[in-house]
Amino acid sequence: MQSVLVTGGAGFIGSNFVKYLLREESDVHVINLDALTYAGNLENLNDLPAPERHEFIKGNICDGPLVHRLLREYKIDTIVHFAAESHVDRSILGPSQFIQTNIVGTFTLLDEAKKFWVDEEAFSLADVRLHHISTDEVYGSLGPDDPPFSETTPYAPNSPYAASKASSDHLVRAYGHTYGMPISITNCSNNYGPLQYPEKLIPLMILNALTGKDLPIYGDGQQIRDWLLVEDHCEAILRVIKDGIPGETYNVGGGNQPTNIEIVELICSFLDELVPDSPHAPHISLIRHVADRPGHDRRYAIDNTKIRRELDWQPHDSLQSGLLKTVEWYLRNSNWVLMVLNNPTFKGWIDRNYSIGSLNE
Ligand code: NAD
Ligand code: DAU
Predict the structure, then answer these.
(1) pTM for the whole structure
(2) Please, are residues 172 and 130 in contact by the beta-carbon 8 Å criterion?
(3) CATH classification number, 201-224+258-291+318-350, choose in 3.90.1070.20, 1.20.1270.60, 3.40.190.10, 3.90.25.10
(4) Is residue 9 in contact with ligand 1, taking CB distance under 6 Å?
């Protein structure tokens, strides 16, 4: 691994991964291809550990000629594919961009990589890898007593987002199976941590609570997710790229099962302690139940036995410690927070997704 194309490296997980990779691998050069949609932000790349080994390219993964050129110009031997439309609620309101980026974009990357690596034999196939970042949502929703998702759980995606990710997983697998492309896939649970765009539950709740806005809980708030600190996800991805078997899938998760309401209550209690003179304390009083997400998946849980056993990976942070670090990060990084909150695109999303009056401006 010398010349790594990271797609979506200006987004939440991608930017955390770029920093992790530059820190961990002293010989690697990173080419960061990102279209800078509403979710991508160059500010996320401000404090790179080795900026001289990073090059940012603004561009779209659906642009075949661009991907074709980048692969050859930078002699790319590894692709780590994060770029995607990633928010379930947006996929419900407007699925078409999800089809384009998540399916057509992944196909474009795969097909260009195949031309370069397989058809032109630019490298020995033992020296290349396309790693695809996927999600546990491809497996659908669990009942309260169902066993957690393993790598052999049948796919049953429920939202347009999950269906588009499932489709991209199938394409990645098919390129490995048919053309012998050295691919790998990680299906990970809900991430949280620094630099997450506040459309997602945890940063939205932290920032709304800090500014005295309502904390909108969809439905009864008893839905369950498995939460993983983003740094632990980054470590798992690098472990799979370096030591995982080509063609294999690895499930990655934090091994916890809180309800959404428990997560929000924990955030509120951290804020009560960290900002004791807040006029909005106790922050729990800001919780409001709002209309449920259509088709809302009830429960996700990950069985990460395979990656634990085969690659000796395990999360370092518990949900408690990771969440506390995350709340502290948002408190410390008010410049980043204000930049995102004051962007009209963000305000437009809040108005569009939440019913009038549920969030007091
Ligand atoms: P994000 O929305 O924060 O970032 C996505 C990035 O992709 C942005 O920088 C955006 O500009 C870029 N992008 C979007 N469309 C593009 C295109 N057509 N061409 C180039 N760049 C484009 O997403 P995230 O939360 O960091 O998720 C990253 C990946 O991890 C996604 O594939 C997602 O499905 C997967 N994933 C996310 C989670 C999670 O909890 N956030 C969990 C498991 C898997
Ligand atoms: O499971 C992995 C997936 O996790 C990733 O593939 C997705 O990219 C990522 O967005 C995330 O999907 P979720 O839909 O689980 O995450 P989100 O943060 O949007 O919501 C988490 C839970 O909180 C979910 O049950 C919906 C609920 N929720 C969310 C928001 C934004 C609320 O109750 N209120 C809210 O305002």
Answers:
(1) 0.98
(2) yes
(3) 3.90.25.10
(4) no
